[in-house]
Specification:
The complex is a heterodimer of chains A (204) and B (483). Chain A has nine helices and five strands; from the N terminus they run E-H-E-H-E-H-E-H-E-H-H-H-H-H. Chain A has 204 residues and is an alpha/beta fold. Chain A is elongated, with a radius of gyration of 24 Å. With 483 residues, chain B is an alpha+beta fold. Chain B is built from twelve helices and nine strands. In chain B, a hairpin with a 2-residue loop joins strand 6 (399-407) and strand 7. The chains are: A alpha/beta (204), B alpha+beta (483). The interface between A and B is medium-sized, with 21 and 26 residues.
Chain lengths: 204, 483
């Protein structure tokens, strides 16, 4: 579990905030409570998961999630609602919520949802780190090597790549080996995956 | 004064008195035409009695003859009145028989005034004094005129008409009417007829005293009519009770409908405390799993559970009060309390619809006699309508304002919105089944108006002073109005 992660509680009902804070605090989670959507959205940096009440005055939970995503925050969101129906839950999931719970919520369900949200967060954190690492490796490639990489992942044979780049097959082979080495790829398939996660597109 | 004079004068006075009582009933309710016929009958009987008295106390054969001639006029009136009464009151009787009776009696009347001295005698030679009721009475000595058979056939026809009508009434299930009214009329008409025939044909030495029998008939009929009056009064009370229970039913349905519109918010209002209670309770369970639980924290949690529980039961109480099909009870109350109570109920709904509520309640407000629940219902409806009319607006513009104030003999309440406003024909919104909503029944405002009317107050609408919306005014009197 990610121990620096915080559970953000947003509900207009102070009694509800307090009860949830007690419940999750008792489970060892770090809690931050907000009694309005505005104060929550004013938070500059978020790290953790958010539990949002759907029915709030001024702004409902769905709107909060939309604004969060617009801000670029990928914080996993759990919705809590007093009167959930299927259309509402579908809408919530489509907006990108990780879970949709109805009040009164049993502590087990809530805790499970928070845990899986935080796992998701950790996973995405790890993925982020991995991408960061690959980006550094990619930055070390020369312009020619990047060109060769783009051709390699498009699945062309060395001979054709050499023809396109106006060089000989032997040179392409050397470039290719260097790319594999620098990118720490163990196979062509691996290299394709890495290129994908970096957003490098294959050459025409 | 002789006994005969006393008795016959009393007959005249008594029947006139009864007649006037019933003609007054007819005057107030023109549909009770049987009362008018009854009145004619009493007038006829009174005149008949006076003619008979004049005959019995006649000094000369001429005076006797004149009195007997005039006696046929009230008799004719009684005939017509009996026929009219039967037709109107029993609603039976054959028309051709009625026409025959009245026709024949009219012919009798004509002949009576054509032939001298009257239809009954060709000539009256003299008078004889007979003992009658311990007094002396004059009787004619003369030749009876066979033409008077016409009069007696008319009497017989009348008897047939009444008996026939009574039997019909009896057959139609109107047993009491047939037996008592029809029976008594038949009996007394028969007796009067018999006595007159016997007397005029000089079979018995008893003066003509038909008015005695008609008086008996009038007494019985008056008794019957007063019973009918009583029954009508009972019916009226029953009708009013039915109307009252219908009113109760309709207002109750209106409340159920209004609460139906609130159901989402009310469910939330009930659910929220339950959610808080559950989370708190589970937090407390978790705390108690520790070896050294924080009992102060547990105490605080229990305190909050109690508060939330009370909040939920408060809501339940409010809803139950509105859903009850209770008696309409007038109590002296503060309109502001009614308003705050409705605000509680509407709090969530307003939040859900993103309507902002402001109020301006005059304190202290004069107390008014009213039914708490019904006034709540009116305000609930007005506020729900206001929210509906602002449905399409943006949250910043959705504003609802409620004010209360006293002025002199009344207390008033205003509900103002800035929604779509009123239709050109403002009064149409208070009509039953008027609605602008897809799922509305269109009874809300109609019921509100009837509730306020039952409180002797007024409910009307006009365009809001500022903006596009509407203002609904409710004015209620401070003094109890006796209905």
């Amino acid at each position: 579990m990610n121990h620096t992660a915080i559970v953000y509680l947003v509900d207009d009902e102070p009694g509800m905030l307090k009860a949830l804070a007690r419940l999750l605090g008792g489970e060892g989670f770090q809690i931050k409570s907000y009694d309005s959507a505005r104060t929550f959205l004013a938070e500059p940096e978020l790290h953790g998961c958010a539990i949002l009440d759907v029915a709030m005055p001024e702004m409902d939970g769905m709107e909060v999630l939309r604004l969060l995503r617009a801000k670029g925050s990928q914080v996993p969101v759990i919705f809590l609602t007093g009167h959930g129906d299927i259309p509402m839950s579908v809408r919530a999931m489509k907006t990108g919520a990780v879970d949709f719970l109805t009040k009164p919520v049993r502590s087990e369900d809530l805790i499970r949802a928070v845990k899986s949200a935080l796992d998701l967060l950790e996973e995405s954190d790890q993925k982020q780190e991995e991408i960061e690492r690959l980006r550094i490796l990619y930055a070390q490639l020369t312009a020619r090597e990047k060109e060769v990489l783009a051709h390699v992942i498009s699945g062309k044979p060395n001979k054709q790549i050499a023809f396109t780049l106006g060089t000989i097959e032997q040179t392409v082979k050397i470039h290719r080996m260097r790319v594999m080495h620098k990118m720490q790829a163990e196979s062509i398939v691996d290299l394709v995956h890495i290129a994908q996660s970096l957003g490098v597109s294959a050459a025409e | 004064m002789s006994l005969i004079t006393v008795i016959w004068s009393m007959i005249a006075a008594a029947s006139l008195t009864l007649g006037f009582v019933h003609v007054l009933v007819w005057w107030q309710n023109r549909e009770k035409r049987e009362r008018l016929w009854f009145f004619f009958m009493t007038v006829g009987t009174a005149c008949l009695a006076l003619c008979e008295l004049a005959m019995m106390k006649a000094q000369t054969p001429e005076a006797f003859g004149t009195a007997l001639r005039w006696l046929h006029l009230p008799t004719w009136l009684i005939f017509v009145a009996i026929v009219g009464f039967i037709l109107v009151y029993l609603r039976t009787g054959r028309y051709w028989l009625a026409v025959a009776v009245i026709g024949l009696r009219t012919v009798t009347l004509g002949l009576n005034f054509l032939l001298g001295p009257n239809i009954n005698y060709r000539e009256i030679r003299g008078l004889s004094q007979v003992r009658y009721l311990g007094d002396s009475a004059a009787m004619a000595i003369g030749r009876p005129n066979p033409v008077m058979l016409v009069a007696q056939v008319a009497l017989l026809l009348l008897l047939i008409f009444v008996v026939d009508a009574s039997v019909q009434a009896w057959r139609q299930g109107e047993k009491r009417l047939g037996l008592l009214t029809g029976g008594s009329i038949s009996f007394f008409v028969a007796m009067g007829t018999l006595s007159a025939i016997l007397s005029l044909w000089q079979v018995v030495e008893v003066p003509v005293s038909a008015s005695l029998f008609f008086m008996g008939m009038i007494l019985l009929m008056a008794f019957d009519l007063s019973l009918e009056t009583k029954r009508a009064a009972i019916l009226e009370v029953e009708l009013r009770d039915t109307q009252e229970s219908k009113y109760k039913e309709v207002t109750h349905l209106g409340r159920v409908a209004a609460l139906g519109e609130l159901s989402v918010s009310l469910a939330h209002e009930m659910n929220q405390p339950l959610a808080i209670i559950l989370s708190n309770a589970q937090a407390a369970q978790k705390l108690l799993e520790n070896k050294t639980p924080d009992l102060a924290e547990v105490g605080e949690i229990l305190g909050e559970i109690v508060n939330e529980n009370l909040r939920a039961s408060e809501t339940i109480k409010r809803i139950r009060a509105l859903l009850q099909r209770g008696e309409v009870s007038s109590q002296i109350l503060d309109l502001n309390e009614v308003v705050t109570e409705v605000f509680h109920l509407m709090k969530n709904e307003m939040a859900r619809r993103q309507v902002s509520l402001s109020h301006d309640l005059a304190r202290p407000l004069r107390h008014i006699p009213a039914d708490r629940i019904q006034l709540q219902q009116v305000l609930l409806n007005l506020m729900l309508n206001a929210c509906d009319s602002m449905e399409t607006g943006s949250p910043d513009t959705k504003k609802l304002h409620v004010t209360t104030k006293s002025d002199g003999a009344s207390v008033s309440m205003e509900v103002t919105d800035n929604g779509q406003g009123l239709p050109a024909d403002v009064e149409s919104i208070f009509q039953a089944f008027y609605t602008t909503k897809d799922q509305g029944l269109g009874m809300g405002l109609a019921i509100c108006r009837s509730i306020i009317a039952a409180h002797h107050g007024q409910l009307w609408a006009e365009p809001a002073r500022a903006g596009s919306g509407a203002t609904f005014h409710v004015v209620l009197p401070v003094k109890e109005v006796k209905s």
